[in-house]
Amino acid sequence: MTGSNRRQFRPAGRARPSLRQVLRRAHLSVAVIAVGLAGLAMTAVGLVALRAYANHNLQLIARSMAYTVEASVVFRDPVVAAESLALIASSEEVSLARVSAADGLLLAEWQRPHSGSFAVFEDMLADLLLPSIVVQPVVQGQREVGLVEVAGHGGALLRFLATGLAGLLICLVASTAAGIYLSRRLVGRITQPLRELAAVAHAVRRDRDLGQRVEPAAIAELNELGQDFNAVLDGFEAWQRYLQNENSSLVHRATHDSLTGLCNRAFFESRMSRAVRDAKESGERVGLLYVDANGFKEINDSMGHAAGDAVLSAVAARLRAQVRESDLVGRIGGDEFAVLLLSLHERADALRVAENLRACMVSPISLAGGACVQTSVSVGVAVYPDDGLTPQALMASADAAMYRAKAKHKGAALSAASGDAQAPGAASPDREPSSC
Fold first, then answer.
1. Residue 364 resides in a domain
2. Using an 8 Å Cβ cutoff, are 136 and 55 in contact?
């Protein structure tokens, strides 16, 4: 299996995340991690500072207790000792306080009662973060008469941790909100130009619309990318125009005669087939005139091919000038032309056009060097559906009528339906091509 084939297999049902989603997740992850690490670091530093403070505070409490119970230790009075311990310990963060004589006799002990649902957590924090027991000697003069033992309470630590976690949560929420806001702004500035670029690319791919362009972007790299993309589109558009011009030129050369500019036989027959098909559906008439330039071979032989080409061009121009824009004039081959008349009302209209084509050749044709020649045309007329129901039959009828006109009288126009009858104006004198 090739690398390209492997890339085609992707897990079904898994949509790729958008750039906006990826950037937003990355920003939120960075914000949460940064705030979390900062909160943990601050909590750790606070716990260390609180432990040092709690140790120092226990030392001070132990000293205060040692000074307070000095007399009760000397006189071994457990009642006074207990009252002194309770007086101080109950108002401080102390979980256990004991007073004993120098010989180890326990005189008094005070222990904070376990109350509330957080007592277990307080004891755990005290065991983990506070010194186990602080021992302070009871001194009278220079003599040690007893000992005071004090153990810290975890209530303050628990309150500190609760406050720290609450602050951390508030900071996390605030930073998340700020991260979302800033992320949206940043992502919008990044993804908006990319979305516009993608939209233009989709339009070019889907609609082949090379006129689309990407708007300038505020970010330099994205703006440069958009300008490069626009430059590529400019090149494609120029190349498309060039190809379209070349294609139009090729199509024109393939469907038109290079000498006269008229359509060639293949294009003319294609248009005639379509016209007959449309006329069959609409019930209209279509006229076909088959035109032959008389004496063209003599002009070529006597005056040269350049003169023959000039005569053909002049005949084509005169024929085109006598018909409507909706009609079609084509060069069928050599000195033969054809005229397709669309939407005829009656046969007489086609005969009038044929007479006009014959009459327009009366004027001499000027050639290079001041010379001129005079020629004539023979015209055969056929009308759909009277003279043929198919393009081939219509062409054959018009061609036959043209040859009858040419054989009977050069410069005449005959209809396929009129037999050997001459069209109006065909009785003019027979004119061979002549110089002026």
1. yes
2. no
